[in-house]
Amino acid sequence: MIAWSRLDDGRQFGSVNLSPPRINLAKCSKTQPKGRTWHGGSSPSFQNGRIERIGEMLRPSIFGSTSTTVVTLSKSLYKSSSKRRINTNYPSAMATISTVPIEKEAEPTLKINPPVQVAKRLEKFKTTIFTQMSMLAIKHGAINLGQGFPNFDGPEFVKEAAIRAIREGKNQYARGYGVPDLNSAVAGRFRKDTGLVVDPEKEVTVTSGCTEAIVATMLGLINPDDEVIIFAPFYDSYEAALSMAGAKIKSITLRPPDFSIPINELKAAVSKNTRAILINTPHNPTGKMFNVEELNAIASLCIENDVLVFSDEVYDKLAFEADHISIASLPGMYERTVTMNSLGKTFSLTGWKIGWAIAPPHLTWGLRQAHSFITFATSTPLQWAAAEALRTPDSYYEELKRDYIAKKAILVEGLKAVGFTVYPSSGTYFVVVDHTPFGLENDVAFCEYLIKEVGVVAIPTSVFYLNPEDGKNLVRFTFCKDEQTLKDAVDRMKEKLRRR
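That's the Aminotransferase class I/classII large domain-containing protein sequence above. Prediction below.
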């Protein structure tokens, strides 16, 4: 039988009693038309001769004369301050109830599929918040200002370069660490930006997006129980990559309004077991840019304590109020830094997943070893196109920055007019706001309300902290959308969102 239990907050979740192994559905036969399948992510309850849905609505679909009822038993537990993640629907069992529409109604049987299995190092990680919010956006017809992908296409000259490479037959495996032309283009761009001369053959590794560069760096250079310091809020893949590497994570929280680094807290966190400090500048999700004083403080700590730096710089061309500074360019830092970047954000081609890591040979060796057994190689024709993109004149980047400054102004001014407390964003295409003027208990509740009742998507930031309580008052919006989409989202919020 299906038993319903009640959580502390009043919600229900289902469990399965395997004895007896058969279920009598006679009482709810009217609700299960023959020849239909009920689809849904949570379990039905059988009350008063009808199926009542727990969670989102069940949707019937017709498949000939067969009839199968799929009942997924799941738990949806909201995070507590002692848990890292929001628990999403996580199947503990799958009950499949099959009926065959014959002249004499057959008694249904219960089949139990094995529970989901996952390694302990990843068991606390659920479906990413970006996937959850994007799915809700589609379901409710909401404008997606949550996930950071543009709703406009990249430059024609880059796409044409990819098409040309395909037609020229550049379609087989690329060299593991990159097509030579792209390695050279990355090295050339890095020299122009930082003044550093690197060997494209020995110090540049092409990866499948910056995310793979991050994972390869962690797996290739971090040993189990090494300590790695990160700054919260942080891009969620950092924690997962470090968990896969077996690292011990120390988190330093950046707090509004300016999200400055608490230098004394950082100094206290560094120990004899600290292997690396992971930074992201410009910073996702806050839009903060690490200033030269903060970067020098990090550099001094790393040199004094023989600590590495992993620097995620994917938003380096989206720096609006000051020039981006790569920490590898500071005295004594190149030899202990892995600099990671990608094509997607700068050229609005996030689906291409072309990234790279730049590091001295003694660090490149480890990350290349990991890369060799993660993806080995990255899309060949897209690498040729990326090389052409990176050689574009600086006028492209200047125009890109102007466009994003205009988009940012639309969103920031609109959010302020709606009633949010908007925090400064000096880079990236994100802005963080305080949602508390609208009276919802936390960031997750607010984002759900915003999607369902207002029709706009934002990202709850609590998922970017080791302690979710630190982010419960903040949500993130993105402005990497066309101007009309941003205006429409602001109009919806002005019309339907009210301060409480």
